[in-house]
Design brief:
The structure holds 2 protein chains of 2 kinds.
Chain A lengths: L1 H7 L7 H30 L3 E2 L4 E2 L5 H8 L1 H35 L3 H12 L6 H6 L2 H4 L4 H8 L14 H25 L3 H9 L4 H30 L2 H6 L7 H10 L3 H23 L4 H4 L1
Antiparallel strand pairs in A: 1-2
Helix pairs in contact in A: 2-14, 4-9, 4-11, 9-11, 10-11, 11-14, 13-14
Chain B lengths: L5 H27 L18 H7 L7 H29 L7 H13 L2 H15 L5 H26 L4 H8 L4 H30 L2 H4 L8 H11 L4 H37 L1
Helix pairs in contact in B: 1-11, 2-11, 3-6, 3-8, 3-10, 4-6, 5-6, 6-8, 7-8, 8-11
Classes of the chains: A mainly alpha, B mainly alpha.
Main location (chain A): membrane
Membrane topology (chain A): Multi-pass membrane protein
InterPro entries (chain A): MetI-like, MetI-like_sf
Chain lengths: ~300, ~270
Amino acid sequence: MTDHARISAPRRSLGPNVAGWLLVSPLALVLSAFLVLPVIMIVVVSFWGTTEFSIYPAFQFDNYAFLFGSEVTYRVFLNTFKYAVITWALTLGIGFTVAYFLAFHVRTQTWQIALFLLCTIPFLTSNIIRMISWIPFLGREGIANSALLSWGMIDAPLDWLLFSDFSVILAFVHLYTLFMVVPIFNTMMRIDRSLIEAANDAGASGWQTLAFVIVPLTKPGIMIGTIFVVTLVMGDFITVRFMSGSQSANVGRLISNDIALLQYPSASATAVVLLVVVLVVIGTLLRFVDIRREL
Amino acid sequence: MGPRPRSFYVLAAVFTLFVVFLYGPTVTIAILSFQGPQGGLTFPMRGTSLHWFRDLFEQQAVGDIWGAFRRSLILGLMVMIVTVVVSVMGGLAFRKRFHGSGALFYLMIAALVIPSILVSLGVGLLFGRAGLPVHWATSGFGAQLTWTLPFGLLIMFAVFNRFDPAFEEAARDLGASPWQTVRHVVLPIIAPSLIGVALFGFTLSYDEFARTLLTAGSYNTLPLEVYGMTTNVTSPVIFALGTLTTVFSFAVIGVFLGGALAMDRRRKTRAGGR
């Protein structure tokens, strides 16, 4: 009895607060130094002034006044939203279908894991290389044009295949559909299969089961995928630049152009506005899902 | 299991198309990288040769890609180790509520959603203003961690959500100290997932472009070098480089997955033996 009491008595351990903080201190340190401080720095610099050769500390609203006074800003933000919405719709459609196939039509776990990995592996390779690899497909003399020409479907090579909005969105879908597949698949795998049997027994058709059982239960995964895709597309600058041949613009390119001209205050002001917009969008989406519970 | 419904075949076709869509372009540039010396960026192939691969090994032809590769490799390993250690610590901590855990959780989500160019710009500005040298192993390293750590933590959350606390309780009842419990019970159980975290840490770092753009300083990492090439190289040498790094990535993924598989198998035989 005394023995048992001694063993199960709470050991002299640190309280949950101290232990927790000790364990997360490296994480907190990294995020403070490389995320919080840099964002504060950007906010500060967004109020600074610029001369032709340098930037100087100040507290002025010139950068914002210029930003909001320029018609280009609104056009570029609108374009950014356009990319985000189109990419979101396409990745959701493809991602849901692929995840649904993996979760409900592939019957053995070994095959499920194998096919899931097959979808995941490209995500672990270089985005830039994956963008470059569209060139032989989409160029004027590329595979797509020569195929269409030889099939007689077109008379002259299509110009809009490469370096256009089409190729930008194609690349986005190519790069980011995975971010939809993974969370949706994860949520689908946690759906209790007896619910689907119950729907079948109650006389629901396949489509009805899909629409009234599976889709509602998959919503958290859809939300998480949406958050990933929307933020990745809205924050992108390299895909738009590369795949549009510098012909289209989004907010990220606006920022990177300013950076290239060493106009850091102006770049910072645009970055702050972008950050606010992204946080508002994500904040809204987060109201519909409890991420921690869904992992 | 009854016969497969017709929808199976439709969906299987869609899935196959998706896989072709994912891998097709990569396979195409792999083929095109064997272009003959007169070949261009697209078909037809003008002969086959290793000409463009040879070009990669001639230092002056395409810049310092081997130096860039070495830097990316070292940086990837640094990021991998730190990501695994910090994610495990964070994952353990987040199992209990502590003061500020909610705020820190949302900070982690913020790290995932804040556009990469902001991290790059902010870290670059901060180091510049603080008079610290901007270098891939310092500012670049930290900037990449803001992306790999949240991923590592998400995986740890998923792992610990499925973790049976009975094992720990048993260890505690047998008199194990908290450290012994972690060392001899928790870590061995989660070890295969740690391989996943390590794989993410390494590959995300190895391929990262945006976060290193303004934080790498004067020495490029491999993705920066590749990006530089896209603006001034118009020969299949860039396909050869793309093919080589992709093959390298596949090899790394293969090694990690093989490791996870071997660990799983060993565990099963052991469990079966008892």
